[in-house]
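Example (one chain per record):
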Amino acid sequence: MSYQTRHPEAAAHPLRSIPMFRPASVLGTAFMAKQDPLTLARQAAARTLELAQYAIAEAWEAYGAAKAAVGEVNRMGRKNRHDRAISSDRYVARRRSEAFGTMNRRRGHFLRAHKALFAAEAALLALAN
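Predicted structure:
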């Protein structure tokens, strides 16, 4: 889910797609547990923030590995290949396409993890008051 706007300046804003209903959504578990809702909500928000930090670290590592794979494929130029008969140009083009596709997917995962981290920080800040 992403927040979309018709305002031209808001289209380039880095926080435009953070759902603003998430800070309040952590209160639901506290009402069901019949405990102090603010304490339980703060604990849930802290746990969500911790999980988001782990997710962004994993996404960054996967993105780095994908970038390395793209570099490896880019070095497979025709003049640099000693096995021109074994690996054809179509094979190299297919591998390059797969490597760039993987890198773009990993970048998307990283950006979604980054947005989740911002949302978790917003939830924790909203509950701090």
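Caption: The helical segments are 22-25, 28-33, 37-74, 89-128.
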